[in-house]
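User: I'll paste a sequence; please echo it back and then give the predicted structure.

Assistant: Echoing your sequence first, then the prediction.
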Amino acid sequence: MSLLPLAQALWLAVPIVLAGAVHVLVIARGWLAPLARLPLDGGISLGGRRLLGANKTVRGALTMIGATIATVWLQVALFRRCAFDDALWLVDLDRVSPLGWGTLLGVGYVAGELPNSFCKRRFGIAPGAAPAGTRARLCWTADQLDSVIGILVCMSFASVPPAPTAVLLLALGLGLHPLMALLMVKLGLKQRVG
C-alpha cells in the first residue's frame, strides 16, 4: 500500500495547521483588535438571530487567509530548496502561484465554517456553545469537518485530489481540529474543545 495519499494529505494540511497556530497567537496577543470587533455577518440578524454570530470576525478571516498564503509560500520555498517529490503537491505550481494556492486553501477554510455557523444560529445554538443530545454529536462532527470540506471545494478550482487523499484529509480534520481547539482552551481562548 502506497503512503503517497497520506503524505499528500499531510503536506496539504501543513499550511492550514500553521495558519491556525498563527490565528491562535493573534487572538492570544490581542493583535488586530479593531478587526476582531468587525463581524463577518455585519451584525445582520435573521428572525431575531445573528446570521453567523460574533465569533466569525474579519480578523479571523484575514488572519487565516493571510497566514495560509504565507505558509504556502514558505512551503513552496522549502519544497524547491530540498527537492521533495513533486507527487506531494496536488497542484501544478507552474500553473497556479503560491498566492493563488494559498488563497484557495485559506478562503476554503474560512468559507467552510460559515454554513455550519449559520445553521447553528438558526437552531438557537450560541457561538461557542454545544447543543445537547444527538444534535451534540452532529454539531461536533460538523465543527471538525466543515473547514476541510470548504478547502476541498475551493481547491477543486485548481486541483481535485485523489479520493484516498481527500478521505485522509477528512480524517486528519477529525484529529487536528480538536487538537487546535484544545490548545485554545489551554490558552483560555475557548471554553470547551467540542
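The radius of gyration is 17 Å. The first helix runs from residue 4 to 29.
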